[in-house]
Amino acid sequence: MRRLQLLLVDDHILFREGLRRLLVSEPDFETVEECSTAAEALEAIGRSAVDVVLLDFDLEDDTGTRFIAAAAAAGYKGKILMVTAGMSPQDVTAARKLGIAGIFLKHNPPNSLLEAIRIVAAGGSWIDPKIAAHAGNSAARPGAPADHLTPRERNVLRAVFEGLTNKEIAYRLGVSQSSVKMTLQHLFDKMGVRTRGQLVRIAIERSIEDARGQ
Questions:
Q1: What's the whole-number mean pLDDT along residues 176-188?
Q2: Neighbours of 123 (CB within 10 A)
Q3: Would you kindly state where each structural domain of the chain is located, as residue ranges?
Q4: 37 dihedral zone (left: phi>0; alpha: psi -120 to 50; beta)
Q5: What does the pLDDT look like over 8-66, one tens digit per residue?
Q6: Domain spanning 133-213, CATH architecture
Q7: Short-list 28, 15, 36, 20, CA closest to 107
Q8: Parallel, antiparallel, or unpaired for β 4-9 and 52-55?
Q9: DSSP state string for 38-84
Q10: What integer is the mean pLDDT of 77-101?
Q11: CATH class for the domain made up of 4-127
Q12: Average pLDDT, integer, range 116-130
């Protein structure tokens, strides 16, 4: 089985070392190189076949978005997964328009990162729910425009992005839990999914497609 070739780009040595130890424990992963600057990373993708770049947003005096643009200009065809402590909405929008495969926040469990890497390597996308919440207004299922969602469905979808329970959603919207369940079922039907996780993923993928097309 061919192992996924990964490039780590983070200027925090301790974090990078911990990430490397996590990745080497996976039989389907291989760390090609570790870099602390965008310049080093650009050299690395020029001399090695890299499937996925795990990229921090803040790199000393530089930002990850500059690397993304430079990598595309250099002909890099692999995936880029931002692994960061946080990004502003403006930076998220810019990164998504540049074609990143996803954004993973560092406070999440290590196993979630392993899942995110495999998903983006397979051609999918991964956006942390806290990041995705900012895109809630434009989310819709593939093939259906956002205006096919009712205001109630939009509000419930946004709350699902934020990780709220049915009870919490009902309290926020001032409706009954049964009403929330019914709205969720409508969302499931419209987007062709059966679980909350699938709902979030499909909506995220659609929002990324919309951002790329802008």
A1: 86
A2: 8
A3: 4-127, 133-213
A4: beta
A5: 999 888 888 899 999 988 999 999 889 888 889 999 998 888 999 999 988 766 778 88
A6: Orthogonal Bundle (1.10)
A7: 15
A8: parallel
A9: HHHHHHHHHHS--SEEEE-SEETTEEHHHHHHHHHHTT--SEEEEEE
A10: 85
A11: alpha beta
A12: 86
The SS3 call for residue 94 is helix
Question: CA 112, CA 34: separation in Å to the nearest integer?
Answer: 21
Q: What is the CA radius of gyration of the chain?
A: 18
Confidence of residue 111 (pLDDT cuts 50, 70, 90): confident
The identity of residue 102, as a single letter, is: G
Token duo for residue 209: 């497609």
Find how far residue 146's CA is from the centre of its chain.
Answer: 20
Task: Extract the tokens encoding 82.
Answer: 């931002």
Residue type, 93: T
Place of tokens 């200027």: 11
Tokens standing for residue 178 = 């049964």
Q: Which residue has the higher pLDDT, 138 or 105?
A: 105
Q: Which two tokens stand for residue 44?
A: 């690395």
**Residue at 92: amino acid letter:** V
For residue 28, give both structure tokens.
């389907």
pTM score, whole prediction: 0.63
Distance separating alpha carbons of residues 8 and 42, to the nearest angstrom: 12
Which pair of structure tokens corresponds to residue 97?
Answer: 């328009």
